[in-house]
Specification:
heterodimer; A: 326 residues; Rossmann fold; 2 domains; B: 361 residues; alpha/beta; two-stranded antiparallel sheet; binds thiamine diphosphate; binds magnesium ion
Chain lengths: 326, 361
């Protein structure tokens, strides 16, 4: 057992995975000598050499496209896109080829690639470095899209993502990289893609969140318990695609109320899909309109005002109270 | 069937005018006026001191991450000094010196670096684009703008800056190809500062020079000593003239060096030798210009001291102004402005909810 930050846990997962499988290759900008701008690939070059840890030029189309070739050949590339805001340079490769290779080749080829990308606001970063546009990837058939919420599940989820036979977009929230430490067991852990988890049990209402917002949701739940005597169940979604809709719909069948929290923009955001699934599966159990507390439909403002954009604990709490009091 | 050499008509030149001791090659010296040269000197010195001041502010937590310009002042000033006020400038994200030359207020840059989008607004009369952070993405904009300049029968030109790293991105190549095909009056200025974060120039591309990439697109290219403001000035002057005359684009590679961190979030000790930095310090563009100006008896140590004092005041005053601007920006609801020409109803609801402290979903 070791107490690790999420960045250390991700580093551990990469090391473990690469130790166990020579077909895994890591590539991206500054991932070798520099160990990645967030140090997620720290030490990998020394351990595995420059045939398995590729410092690429500044060329996201090339990184993603080359990864597709590597994967078709039978290798297992893990790409680091330095920030999710630069993944659009690689978007054509991801959408037009990675997501469709199995489909278009009628099963002849498939591309087990992990595209790791730091995302999210709250760390006073530059423009284009704070966005939360997971919807774009969750929307594309053929891609999986996952987001861990802490060191332990990040490590397990990355191992599973690397072993997954299909392309996985793996978002890492920058504000979580060094936010806290958590016990990570010595023995390997995996976390199947498409499984959510219950982060807090409760009976009065269900909050669905993921990534950094999970922690604000948990904070709101504690306040709600203390100030209102209401117990919120908090679901950590982890997988946006495939979306695990069994856990939150089951939860709402017990609580009758739901609040969805995300940092992504509101319109056509993940909440829209989550709430629709609820309508389809548990509508008659609802006792109040569902609330969504989200980032606004604006670009993330530059950092002096990024907190104005993000759902605050207060906004989440207000949403919970509206859901509880109708 | 023959197998013969293809005689490419392209040749590449390297241009350097001032040596490290500030001695100019007399056959190449453009003999600029004292006034012009002192203007270069002042702008370069102001850029250097402003950069240092920002680094201090950043370390004190008063402003956020930014990309220091130190070492690249000649490459930027030498290039933009060729532009008329209503020519266009399309920068990347490290062009503090160019922005100063063009008239961007220091307080605006500070306001931006303090985290306010308002600081990124370019003054109305200035034809500069906002900085572009996605590497290489701005380069084609200088093709479109330049096409517009020609289309409307003006003799305006567009100059774009980018780094050595940016030449690995697709948009760089697409832009050069487009510019040549449509003969746009574009000047592509690559600041080859030897690093793209931790990636050294020779791990960015196996091309011996960046200038030679022009050849692939049928475009003239030239490599210059980027720490020599006279060489940069002369090379870009030719490129601008060619563009104004309707003879199309040019690629100018300025060989320079990033003397500071990549950005303030970066730790270069992980990937580069301090020795290399010390070597390049000997080729400092400002010291070199000062030596030249002293040889020519256009500048004395007293003049420099006086200039330094003025600059210190200017920079401090800029931060004072910025702090006042920040105080005046307390209304955060401006985050809902400038998304569209008008505000759609759903967004107005979100804004009202924000102002009223309530979520209006
Ligand atoms: C499309 C894109 N990919 C990655 C980054 C992260 N990044 C910022 S600057 C940089 C290196 C750029 O090097 P260069 O073009 O030489 O410019 P310099 O920083 O040396 O001025 C990288 C990789 C980015 N901003 N945009
Ligand atoms: Mg560079």
């Amino acid at each position: 057992m070791a107490e690790l930050t999420m960045s250390e846990a991700l580093n551990l997962a990469l090391r473990e995975a690469m130790d166990g499988d020579d077909d895994i290759i890591t590539l991206g900008e500054d991932v070798g000598v520099n160990g990645g701008v967030f140090r997620i690939t720290d030490g990998l070059l020394d351990r595995f050499g420059d045939k398995r840890v590729l410092d690429t030029p500044v060329a996201e189309t090339g990184i993603a496209g080359m990864a597709i070739g590597l994967a078709i050949y039978g290798l297992k590339p893990v790409c680091e896109i330095q920030f999710s805001g630069f993944s659009y340079m690689a978007f054509n490769q991801i959408e037009a080829h990675a997501s469709r290779m199995r489909w278009r080749s009628r099963g002849r080829f498939h591309v087990p690639i992990v595209f790791r990308m730091p995302f999210g606001a709250g760390v006073h970063a530059l423009e284009h470095h704070s966005e939360s546009k997971e919807t774009i990837y969750a929307h594309i058939p053929g891609l999986k899209m996952v987001i861990p919420s802490g060191p332990r599940n990040a490590r397990a989820l990355l191992i599973s993502a690397i072993r997954d036979p299909d392309p996985v977009i793996f978002f890492e929230h920058k504000a979580l990289y060094r936010a806290f430490r958590e016990e990570v067991p010595d023995e390997e852990e995996t976390l199947p893609l498409g499984e959510s988890r219950t982060a807090r049990e409760g009976t009065d209402l269900t909050i669905v969140a993921y990534g950094a917002m999970l922690h604000r949701a948990l904070e709101a739940a504690e306040k709600l318990a203390k100030e209102d005597g209401a117990e919120a169940e908090v679901i950590d979604l982890i997988s946006l695609s495939p979306l695990d809709d069994s856990r939150f719909t089951e939860s709402v069948r017990r609580t009758g109320r739901m609040v969805v929290v995300h940092e992504a923009h509101r319109s056509f955001g993940p909440a829209a899909e989550i709430i629709t699934r609820l309508m389809e599966k548990s509508f008659y159990y609802l006792e109040a309109p569902v609330e969504r507390i989200t980032g606004y439909d604006i670009q993330v403002p530059y950092f002096a005002r990024e907190q104005d954009y993000l759902p605050s604990v207060e906004r989440i709490l207000d949403g919970c109270r509206r859901a509880l009091n109708t | 069937m023959p197998r013969v050499k293809i005689g490419l008509k392209y040749q590449l030149e390297y241009l350097s005018i001032l040596d490290e001791s500030g001695e100019a090659d007399t056959s190449l010296d453009p003999d600029l006026s004292k006034e012009q040269l002192l203007k270069f000197h002042h702008a370069m010195l102001l850029s250097r001191r402003f950069d240092e001041y920002m680094l201090k502010l950043q370390r004190q937590g008063r402003i956020g991450t930014f990309a220091p310009v130190k070492g690249q002042e000649a490459a930027q000033i030498g290039a933009v000094a060729n532009l008329e006020d209503d020519d266009w400038l399309v920068p990347a994200f490290r062009e503090t010196a160019a922005a100063i030359w063009r008239g961007t207020p220091l307080s605006g840059m500070l306001l931006y670096n303090a985290g306010y989008n308002e600081g990124g607004r370019i003054p109305d009369e200035q034809n500069d684009l906002p900085i572009a952070i996605p590497v290489g993405s701005q380069i084609p904009h200088a093709v479109g703008i330049a096409y517009g300049c020609r289309y409307q029968d003006t003799d305006r030109v567009a100059l774009t800056f980018f780094g050595d790293g940016a030449t690995s991105e697709g948009p760089f190549h697409e832009a050069l190809n487009l510019a040549m095909l449509f003969e746009t009056p574009t000047i592509f200025v690559c600041q080859n500062n030897h690093w793209a974060i931790s990636t050294p120039r020779d791990r960015q591309t196996r091309s011996e020079t960046i200038a030679q990439k022009a050849i692939a697109y049928g475009m003239p290219g030239i490599q210059v000593d980027g720490n020599d403001v006279l060489a940069v000035y002369c090379a870009v002057r030719e490129a601008v003239q060619r563009a104004r005359d309707g003879d199309g684009p040019t690629l100018v590679e300025c060989v320079t060096y990033r003397m500071e961190v990549h950005t303030t979030a970066d730790d270069p000790t992980r990937y580069r030798d301090e020795e290399q930095v010390e070597q390049w310090a000997k080729r400092d563009p400002i010291e070199r210009l000062q030596k030249y100006l002293k040889h020519k008896e256009m500048l004395t140590d007293e003049d420099i001291e006086k200039d330094e004092k003025e600059i210190e005041q200017t920079v401090k005053q800029a931060w004072q102004d910025t702090k006042e601007q920040i105080d005046a920006l307390s209304d955060a609801s401006v985050i809902f402005e400038y998304l569209y020409a008008g505000r759609p109803p759903y967004l107005e609801e979100q804004r009202e909810g924000f102002v009223g402290g309530q979520d209006n979903g």
